[in-house]
Amino acid sequence: MRAVRPFLLAGAVLTMACGGSSSPAPVPGGTVVDPAIAGSIQGRARFEGQTPAPEVARIDADKDCVSLNGADRLPVDAVLVGEDGGLQNVFVYVKSGLEKASFPIPNDPVVVEQQRCRYVPRVVGVRVGQPLQIRNGDPLLHNVRSDSEVNQPFNQGQPVQGMVFAHTFTTREVMVPVTCDVHKWMRTYVGAVEHPYYAVTDAAGRFTLPDLPPGTYTLAAWHERLGSREQPVTVAAKESKNVELTFAR
Length: 249
Description:
Blueprint: E1 7-9, E2 12-14, E3 16-17, E4 20-21, E5 39-48, E6 55-58, H1 63-69, E7 73-76, E8 91-96, E9 110-114, E10 119-120, E11 123-127, E12 131-136, E13 142-146, E14 155-158, E15 164-168, E16 173-179, E17 187-193, E18 198-200, E19 206-212, E20 215-223, E21 227-235, E22 240-248
Parallel strand pairs: 5-22, 9-12, 11-17
Antiparallel strand pairs: 1-2, 3-4, 5-19, 6-7, 8-18, 8-20, 9-10, 12-15, 13-14, 13-16, 16-17, 20-21
């Protein structure tokens, strides 16, 4: 989970943004978030019902992946339910209510690794205009393919360990599946949004969106197997609003 700390200094917006940091810079027509009145949304994504059985993927078609893992099967992290029903890897973001706001774009990239024939992390967020890097950490061939419906799709081979593929999304898209044609079980999902108010739930299903200006928002949550949820949330000055998001099969 990543956090953001905008603050006011002599009329400029200085921001530490999700996925990286940006140099102090004024934003023409942008939003200044006053920390004296900023609020937050925090909460938990919860799975309701019988916890699904763990899934596994067979990887015995590639002996190098078997060698890297010491097994011919890998766990599939599509549905991870923790203690008390906490649901991991839910992408939570402010869907509406910030249309008149703008924030500096981080210069530092968001990084996804190919590790032992898996994408890590499974779910990640990035700002529109911020670099996304996908790095091959394995001594074997991977490729990186997006199934974007809004942004420009990409399909890039990475035959050498240490290779880095970089891409920048130009508009919002939640979510973008990224796969590997060589290893069909490899999958990650990227949420590209215009602002820093997003998070991915942790192993307990928890998330926090700090430093929100007071206002009324639509909060959206996405899970790769369990679909999407939306609900209105009004945040008053200095208020910490708690939200529970329930998912079920």
